[in-house]
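Incident log, support desk, overnight shift.

02:14 A customer reports that sequence design results differ from what the structure should imply. Their input is reproduced verbatim below. On-call engineer (initials T.W.) acknowledged and began investigating.
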């Protein structure tokens, strides 16, 4: 009669476990900063893309209606809620497209008859909490409004010509973005840190 000998399975020793945990910890410590930068860059792009969509909507409405339409940067007490705490601000990450000033009336529904006759609006949302926005006119002064005429051209010397979007604490790791509004009303999204003339992302 044969006797089967079974060898007890060997588990991890304490030293092996400590080495494994240490290696995993080091790898995580290296990956977390990169992930945080990636998330912040995504938030910057989300805010910039939203603002660009608002500017383009205002221009399209002005051309369609053949009358002045206003794009306003607005700041909110809660960046995720478009309410009547809104104030027109050159640093606002939220926006309103309207026929009249939306100051203190951003909670009004989209309507062509009820003041301020809001045509579209968008709260900055959670993405905007750690992102800075700066609206500037052609002379690099603060600007919070952009009005298009019926031909889709910006009106007024103090209209927004550039909207800069960056991390609240700028750094080399973050991809700042800029929306540039041309004198004819054209818009483009570019990266101010790009310097190569052949790069299509250059501002």
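02:41 Re-run completed on a clean worker. Output:
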């Amino acid at each position: 009669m044969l006797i089967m000998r079974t060898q007890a399975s060997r588990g991890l020793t304490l030293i092996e476990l400590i080495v494994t945990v240490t290696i995993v910890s080091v790898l995580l410590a290296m990956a977390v900063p990169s992930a945080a930068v990636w998330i912040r860059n995504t938030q910057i792009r989300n805010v910039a893309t939203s603002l660009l969509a608002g500017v383009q909507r205002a221009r399209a409405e002005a051309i369609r209606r053949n009358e002045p339409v206003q794009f306003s940067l607005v700041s909110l007490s809660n960046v995720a809620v478009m309410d009547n705490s809104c104030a027109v601000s050159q640093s606002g990450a939220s926006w309103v497209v309207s026929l009249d000033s939306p100051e203190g009336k951003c909670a009004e529904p989209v309507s062509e008859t009820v003041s301020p006759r809001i045509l579209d609006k968008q709260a900055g949302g959670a993405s905007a909490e750690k992102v800075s926005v700066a609206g500037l006119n052609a002379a690099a002064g603060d600007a919070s409004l952009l009005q298009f005429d019926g031909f889709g051209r910006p009106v007024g010397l103090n209209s927004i010509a550039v909207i800069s979007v960056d991390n609240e604490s700028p750094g080399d790791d973050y991809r700042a973005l800029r929306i540039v509004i041309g004198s004819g009303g054209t818009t483009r999204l570019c990266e101010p840190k790009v310097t190569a003339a052949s790069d299509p992302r250059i501002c």
